[in-house]
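User: My collaborator sent over this chain with a note saying "see what the structure looks like." That's all I know about it. Can you take a look?
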Amino acid sequence: MAKELKELTSREENYAQWYNDLVIKADLAENSAVRGCMVIKPYGYAIWEKIQRQLDDMFKETGHVNAYFPLFIPKSFLSREADHVEGFAKECAVVTHYRLKNNPNGGGVVVDPEAKLEEELIVRPTSETIIWSTYKNWIQSYRDLPVLCNQWANVVRWEMRTRLFLRTAEFLWQEGHTAHATREEAIAETEKMLNVYAEFAEKYMAMPVVRGIKTANERFAGAIETYCIEGLMQDGKALQAGTSHFLGQNFAKAFDVQFSDKEGKRDYVWATSWGVSTRLMGALIMSHSDNNGLVLPPKLAPFQVVIVPIYKNNEQLAQINEKVATIVSQLKARGISVKYDDADNKKPGWKFAEYELKGVPVRLAMGARDLENNTVEVARRDTLTKETVSCENIDIYISCLLDDIQETIYQKAFDYRDTHTTSVDSYDEFKEKLEHGGFILAHWDGTPETEEFIKTETKATIRCIPLEGDKTPGKCMVTGKPSAQRVVFARAY
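Assistant: Without extra context I'll predict from the sequence alone. Here is the result:
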């Protein structure tokens, strides 16, 4: 394990390589035999399950239910909404045949030319089209509304440049798709789900985010408005962590989804969609981790506490086992997830390094002297500090410690973002500050042309038009034209 840590590239030396090393060495994921796809390993998937479980609870608290829709979408469906097909056309994987056969010339199998599909199928890049074709059968009257569905699924977007968790050809996500009787209800839903995402990011991921609206250039294909949360990673780059889209009546019109209101008048329903993906895993890693490995917020750690015995003989181990059993019982009674690692095939020092690399928030070590003194050594992952504490009321102590670690991790990320957020008024100052990374608040004239000019010249994009903060009007840093408010620029993943 010491060797593994030595091979972990430092953040300062090469941030991208540090990230990749950490994902692999902490047993989160690895590249698969299929180019651009990943294998999420058990430890990584356990973190994703924690993310999934918490979000799922939050969705259900807001009245949403889970459903499942097909993986395959008829090609003609994507053609019905012009902006949507244009936005995803270059990323679609297409199924053209439904059968293989043995190669008559030997050497394995070939596609059977007689098994060509009448209509090609698209492996879902997102599910608006297949879901709205379904909603047409579900919705006839105002009594059928709202429809508040979510699905947990995989999607495929054929990426050429991939990075584990951040950008892969196939990834896991959830996508909510809702239908409403009025424009106002749909907009309220869009904003509600943005706030759910923001609450999850800050309260559970310990990652501060900016809530905002995307520009027309950055808007989801087929949406009227796209809301987003943006996080700042430790290398000064932004990462879009979640989006919520007001779709207007675009998809309802494309699939003829109408309802009768209370007066019997027919109208098209109003729609939203919203989603987060395994990209959150990348955000979690890059927001908090260090050169010693992962730093996980306690609320999302697969296990919050690990206990390692230190003993010279089986008699000592038996005594430690008895003491630890009581501690484990106390911790679990408080809802704390705990692992007791008494495996005899690794030395304590190796275990310490492994759990540090994997970001376990709290490590307890108990040896012969601890048994005598009724104490235990407590090490916290975020600060790498250790202290010896009494076993009396250890459950209360650890519970408070986990809360403190959660808050400390959030505050550290918040302080980083705060010190790496700058306001500028001139384009020259903008370009100079951009080289240091971080969020830059600047005035923009609201035109796609100016936005594209800045992006082409600097590789910085408008991450969002923030919903909170300074709304003072000014002048565009590039053109000098009027600007309604400052927007958030950054280079991004």
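A starting point for your reply to your collaborator: The first strand starts at residue 29 and ends at 31.
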